[in-house]
Amino acid sequence: MDIALVIGGLVLILVGFIGSALPVIPGPPLSWLGYLMLRWTGYVADNENYDTALWIMLFFVILVTVLDYVVPVWGTKKWGGSRAGMIGATAGLIVGLFLGPLGIVLGPFAGAFLGELVTGKKERDALRAGWGSFLGFLLGVGMKLMVCATLLFLFIYHLVR
At a CB cut-off of 8 Å and minimum separation 6, what does 113 contact? Predict the structure, then answer.
């Protein structure tokens, strides 16, 4: 049973990495659940360090999950975007999902840019809003990847310890 839980936990952590870039998969929460699965194995039975790390990481998972919704909006607004730009960035991200990794990265930028153009903004202002959306997206992905990488490290650390 320990082997099945370890494999399941590792799979969840790896899917969490994928979910850090794809908005339809909740990356950090899945990675945390994978780390939690290690709790029911003989590898960490009654390990106080594991329990402390588990709850600290839950805090960071919740924080990053909340910030993931705030940071792209903040980036778009910070760089002069409007509601149309934010809606466009979201639509661009959804369309970008079907265009592969490059689409996922460039979709929010293109969507915010087009959303701002539709409202009548000049190209220069629309480009600024698109840039802000792109930076916000990258920052959100970066935060989620750091949390997932930390969970993977802790998983392996407690597994081989």
Answer: 85, 88, 126, 127, 129, 130
Length, in residues, of the chain: 161
The tens-digit pLDDT sequence of the chain (161 residues) is 889 999 999 999 999 999 887 777 899 999 999 999 998 888 886 778 898 999 999 999 999 998 887 777 777 778 888 888 878 888 887 888 788 878 877 888 888 889 989 988 899 988 888 888 778 878 888 999 999 999 999 999 998 87
**Hunting for tokens 């106080």 — which residue is that?**
48
C-alpha torsion sign, points 24, 29, 34, 35: positive
CB 103 within 8 A of CB 97: yes
Q: Say if residues 33 and 62 touch (Cβ distance below 8 Å).
A: no
Its domain, for residue 23, covers 2-160
Number of structural domains, the chain? 1
